[in-house]
Amino acid sequence: AWAWAEPPHVVIGTPDELTKMVGRGGIRYNAVKFVVVDEVDACLLNNGGTASSMGNLASAGPLHELLSRYLSPTYDDAADVPLDASDLVQTSAADISVSSRPVSHGTDRQTVFASATIPQHNHFVRQCVQNQWTVREPLHVRTSPGELVPPTLTHAYAVCDGNDNKFGGLRRILKKEVKKSGGVVKVLVF
Fold first, then answer.
1. Cβ atoms 187, 174 nearer than 8 A
2. Which of 4, 41, 80, 173 could be bridged to 115 by S-S, CB 3.0 to 4.6 A?
3. CB under 8 Å to 130, separation ≥6 — which residues?
4. Predicted TM-score (pTM) above 0.70
5. What residue ranges do the domains of the chain occupy?
6. How far apart are CA 80 and CA 114, in angstroms?
7. 22-45 pLDDT, tens per residue?
8. Contacts of 4 (CB under 8 A, 6+ apart)
């Protein structure tokens, strides 16, 4: 797969697309360091377009499969599991403190859930841990409409006629930003 030959720094897609890509071996999920789920409330909609039960996020479909099966911080590859039975230790989840719990592959994966409209914030945070989407209880960050955007952050957009002109518009914006800054710029495109 292309992502194995030249591993990308950023991969953007819907939960369904990413689940398929990871399932086919297109992404080394054990190397994922950051997961950002934008509009998480929309991702929690079930296939019928109605909200999945906040009491059972397992009904959240592709997002739940992606985070629980492939990107769970508690998931280990079969290659990482010891083959010698003497190396195995039997324990229960109650015996492991959240702060000392080992994370797969020796690294912490940071997960960001972004939403302006998610209902029942505290319940959602607890469900993230219960569904093993995160190891620790997530930090809930609220922003207010009056907060200032950092002065080094700029937004740009272009109105394009049809899909054929989108890449040309993007190139024009990027060239303009590089010229304005006099060198390399960091860009995130949505």
1. yes
2. 41
3. 57
4. no
5. 2-130, 148-190
6. 32
7. 888 887 777 778 888 888 877 766
8. 25, 26, 28
